[in-house]
Amino acid sequence: MRQKIRYIPSSIIALSCTLLLFCSVLNFSHAGMVSDTVETIALTRNPVEGSPPVTLSYILIKIENAAGTVILFIGGDGRAFLSDWQIGIRNTNFLMRTRHHLAAEGFNVVVIDAASDFLQSPSGLFERRTGIEHLSDIAAVINDLPGKLGVDPGPICLIGTSMGTVSAGAYAAEAASNSILPKIGSIILTASVTRQINDDYRENLLDNVALEAINVPCYLIAHENDTCYVTPPSDIAIMKSRIKVNSPKVNHKLFAGGTAALTPECDALSAHGFFGIEQKLVSNIGKWIRNQIKNE
């Protein structure tokens, strides 16, 4: 079965991805909300000698009377290439393809790209997600939001999927004690990377993030049929026991069902990427975030 999945013609996969994105936009437009904008900010760190200043681009979906703001971290090497929207829009990551649905749940939505110096590296954010430069980049986006939104962003929830969970988890852990980083309200980790990819790419939540330091509500989500070797659903129990040390609330949920995979088991259009149950998952996430805001 896996061999058959791996050899599906790329044209069919591309068509399926296009249809998914098109349907997402249709549903979003039907809700009467504004569309994506891509914002770019200058970062303060020094570029490599001879290189242009370091910048970072992010998608912003602004809605009226938002209950809060969700900041999304895609997986893999974290490079969405949002500065070239024709490339960025083709990204099929679970959070990228459901961003409009999250906006329909009543939240401003932000999708963070890798900074320009990391975009130029073939490894992108691999081995950089727990570093202070990347965490400072996230802080820069959070600090930029009031000006771009024209209002306070409200409670902020970081949502990561796959390798993006390392970014979200690392920021939450560091922000708990680092007064320079803006505070957040909650985090959601989906299809969490808890094992090293290989000897070159070792970064993961269990080995490299101080989960015990996280002091905001946390929601751990996995698909029971996720067979990606770095995101075993069974590791949720370990994560939960460590996060509970300081977090006021740690919930978890295993989802089931979906559509037959179009990509290998660690890629986006499979159980790993919650393929076929996106709306069900997003509705559940929206409800969880609203409950956290209500109880603040």
Q: Considering the protein shown, what is the CATH homologous superfamily? A: Alpha/Beta hydrolase fold, catalytic domain
Structural class given helices, strands, pairing?
alpha/beta
How much beta, percentage-wise?
Answer: 15-25%
| CATH-assigned fold name | Rossmann fold
End-to-end Cα distance:
47 Å
The low-confidence parts are: 1-33
Properties at a glance:
Rossmann fold; 296 residues
Structure commentary:
Helices cover 35% and strands 16% of the residues. The chain is globular, with a radius of gyration of 18 Å. The protein is built from 11 helices and 8 strands. The chain is of the alpha/beta class. It starts with a helix and ends with a helix. The protein has helices spanning 2-6, 10-30, 85-88, 94-97, 99-104, 116-119, 132-149, 164-175, 205-208, 236-243, 278-294; strands at residues 37-42, 55-61, 68-73, 107-112, 156-161, 186-190, 218-223, 250-255. An 8-stranded mixed sheet has the order 1-2-4-3-5-6-7-8, sandwiched between helices. The protein has one domain (2-294): Rossmann fold.
